[in-house]
């Protein structure tokens, strides 16, 4: 076992109650702390209780907030805690413009980013261009969409896609303690 997760809190409509989610999330945090394994975290519409739960634990191992779609303020809290931020195909969607702005404004440092697809979710236009004849199909997302995500990040940071790929790969290895 390399990491604990994906675990966290999702207060989206239709999900289990916040109380039930917390009842399961806290022991998962305990497990990661006991085993000293990195945490792959999920948070949606639950930032404050999520942070409170994380801060209630001592000696948290390295953590990555997977599929980040939050605000600049939320990102700052995670970054200040030393967490990595997972960027998915969401950044390639119109709704991802705020993430692009955060990158351009230097609010999401490359040294704390990892790139992920969240496949089969977070599909975007042309994410299947290497697999499908219908290149406008958005779902399901596929692992081969990573270069498109890297390209958008590179454009926002005004650096090469190769540099983004190299740094985020190194970050992922560091986060997962594979180097």
TrEMBL record:
The keyword Transport does not apply. Keywords: Hydrolase, Metal-binding, Nuclease. It comes from the Eukaryota. One of its GO terms (molecular function) is metal ion binding. InterPro entries: DNase_TatD-rel_CS, Metal_Hydrolase, TatD-like, TatD-type_Hydrolase. Pfam families: TatD_DNase. One of its GO terms (cellular component) is cytosol. CDD domains: TatD_DNAse. The keyword Hydrolase applies. Belongs to the metallo-dependent hydrolases superfamily. TatD-type hydrolase family. This is Uncharacterized protein. It comes from Thraustotheca clavata.
